[in-house]
Structures are given as structure tokens and as C-alpha cells.
Amino acid sequence: MLSFAPGRRRFSDLSEREILALAISAEEDDGRIYAGYAERLEPDYPATASIFREMAKEEDGHRRALIGEHERRFGPTIPLIRREHVADYVSRQPIWLIENLGLERMRAEAERMEKDAARFYEAAARRTSDAGTRRLLGDLAAAERAHEHRAEELTKANLGGETREAEDRTARRQMILTLVQPGLAGLMDGSVSTLAPIFATAFATRDPHTTLLVGLAAAVGAGISMGFTEAAHDDGKLSGRGSPIKRGLASGIMTTVGGLGHALPYLIPDFWTATTIAFAVVFLELWAIVFIQHRFMETPVLRAAVQVVVGGALVLAAGTAIGAG
């Protein structure tokens, strides 16, 4: 973060009153963030949601203590100063960004927030000359440092072994439905469906440049088509498959990647060198699909190999035969 950003002040330039006002607004923000996490997680992860609700209550207690200290020293009117007004103050990620990244990302962000708050209160305590304010800020720093342990206590109280495992299974299932399945479908489509046109062009023309252009067109076109299809056909509300935008991106990007894998070797001007490398890339792509199916979809390796490798080999052979003929 740039400390010389226009219109913003440095933390070292704030008065004691402004430091208290900044702390009050920061506690309000953090409490709302935790409450937002709780609301977002309630349907699928009620135990973790209760942890964030407890943390929101603690932040509210800190806010009330800070307001009381401000009233004691400076009266009831609190200056409007927020974290974005201070150039070198800790930032917070937008809640919509974090909540879309999943359960573990929210837990990690909460831990980071507590550590940031503790460092702020330690620095603020060193800036004040009033004994009461210094004591309060020091106590809040200690409380934030202890929040990690408090979070662990809340986790143990609300997330027993079976509950935590159940929530982790739910999170893994949601990841598979939202990202892995669409991405895998895209990778399979991009890797297999583009084999025939690319290799038919390659053996028909023996021209790496033409083959590259056809491969790029096939990969990008297939990616756009798959992405829009995935995003448009299911909004995820009834199926529980998650955000259509994330599913569409996963499908579209992986479709394009699958097609580009065996098209990019034709950047090499020598036809047989490029084709040999493209064959090797196809082999790796197909076995990568087998691995993903086995790892995330629990498909037996033999069945996945028959479905993907044998099917891909047949498409490759068909494209090669058509081009050579």
C-alpha cells in the first residue's frame, strides 16, 4: 500500500482522538465481516457459522469499550475516520471476494484479521500518553492476540470431530460440483474433441502454421462454447452446483487449455518435430484426465483409462487417417 497516496494520512500523523475513532470504525467493520461470514455459511456450515457469530459479538464488545473511552476523554462526537483514510493501515479484502473462495479461505482470513488488529493496538498503545487509554489499547491487543486461541476454543466447542469432518466433506463436495466437474468436462472436451480437426489438418497440409491456426480456432471456439453452455443451462439454485459464473469459467478455461495443449507444439516450424511433441502432449493430457477422474470423482483407474485413453486414441487415429487420406 502506498503511503503517499493522495488524500490519505499516515498513521503516525493521527491524533489520539483519531486513533480511537479509527479503532472504533475498524471494530465495526470486522464485526460486520464476521457476521457476514456467519450468514453466508449458515445453510451449509452451521457450526462454523456459530463460531463467526461469537467472534462478531466479541468485536462488538471491543467497539463499545472504545466508544466509552472516547466519551471519557473527548466527548460523544466521534470523528469520521476509516481504514481507507489511512495510507499505512491494514486493509480488508471485500467480503464478496473471500466468501466466494470457500470455507478454509474464510477461516484463514479471520486469523489474519485478528493478527492485524493486534499489531494495530500495540502500535496505538505506544502512541498515547493517557494511562487509561494505554491500558485499554494494551488490553485489546492482548485480546486480539488471544483470539486465535479463542477461535480454537470455539472450534473445539462447536466443531467436534464428526462435525468438522462433515463440514469438510460438504466443502469438498461443493468444490467438486462448482469447479472440478465443469473443469474436468471442459478438459475432456478440449483435449478429445479437438484432436480430429487438428491432426486431420496437420496430416492433410503438413504445414505447422496452418495447423496452429486451426488448433487455436478450435480450442478458443470450444472454450467459449463450453463456458457459455455451462453458465447458461443451470443457475445452481436448485441443483446446488454453485455459481454459474465460476462453473462457466472453469469449463471454458479448461476446454481451451485442453485444446491448446496439442496445438501449441505447431509453433515449431518442423512438421515432424511438432507432431511428435503434440502426440506426447496428447498422451499426457489423457492420463491427466484419468488422474483427475480417479482423484476427485473416485472413478476406478481402469474404467477411466478405457473411457478416456482408448476413446482419445480412437479420435486421434480417426483424425490422422482422415488427414493422411
From TrEMBL:
Annotated compartments: Endomembrane system
Q: What are the start and end residues of every segment in region (Disordered)?
A: 147-168
Looking up InterPro entries in the UniProt record yields: Ccc1_fam, Ferritin-like, Ferritin-like_SF, Rr_diiron-bd_dom, UCP035918_rubreryth/DUF125
What keywords appear on the UniProt entry? Membrane, Transmembrane, Transmembrane helix
- A Pfam family of this chain: VIT1
TM spans (from-to): 179-204, 210-228, 274-292, 304-324
Is-annotated flag, keyword Transferase? no
Q: Any keyword Phosphoprotein? A: no
Q: Where is the Rubrerythrin diiron-binding domain?
A: 18-154
Q: Which PANTHER family does the UniProt record give?
A: BLR7895 PROTEIN, RUBRERYTHRIN SUBFAMILY
Q: Kindly provide the name given to this protein in its UniProt entry.
A: Rubrerythrin family protein
